[in-house]
Design brief:
mainly beta; two-stranded antiparallel sheet; about 10% helix; globular; 8-stranded antiparallel beta barrel
């Protein structure tokens, strides 16, 4: 009985060492200052709604720019440890792409376009192609 108590105690003491679940890493507001681009994500519960565009329902997230309302929707997300595979479409549904999002550390995430259409967002009334790789910093909303 004493050994069972000691084993249970050691399990409880070591529990915080395991850290948060991979899901918590992918519930965030991420921002790229260079391009003014943000990612709003909840890849686990898919609870993100787009302000003013509720007809899309709850999604894993979306990417957009602060300067305008054009977005790309994340329609599917699969998390494997510190990396997420994202399936995305533009808001018209005319273009799609597959990207990855990797958590590098507590605040740095790297977004990479891997397959499909080029990610383009509106900038001053013109389409701006985003780079294939962008770094995002976790922000408080």
């Amino acid at each position: 009985m004493k050994n069972l108590f000691i084993a249970a105690f050691l399990c409880l003491v070591n529990l915080p060492l395991f850290g948060q679940s991979p899901c918590e890493d992918f519930r965030a507001y991420l921002f790229n200052k260079e391009y003014g681009v943000f990612l709003k994500i909840d890849l686990c519960d898919e609870s993100i709604t787009i302000p003013g565009q509720d007809f899309y329902g709850s999604l894993p997230g979306y990417i957009g720019k602060k300067a305008n309302n054009f977005i790309w929707l994340i329609t599917n997300a699969e998390i494997i440890e510190k990396k997420a595979k994202l399936t995305m479409i533009n808001e018209f549904g005319s273009e799609d792409l597959i990207a990855s999002l990797v958590r590098e550390n507590d605040s740095l995430y790297v977004f990479r376009q891997e397959e499909g259409s080029q990610l383009k967002l509106s900038q001053n009334g013109k389409w701006q192609k985003m780079p294939k790789k962008m770094e995002f910093i976790r922000q408080n909303q």
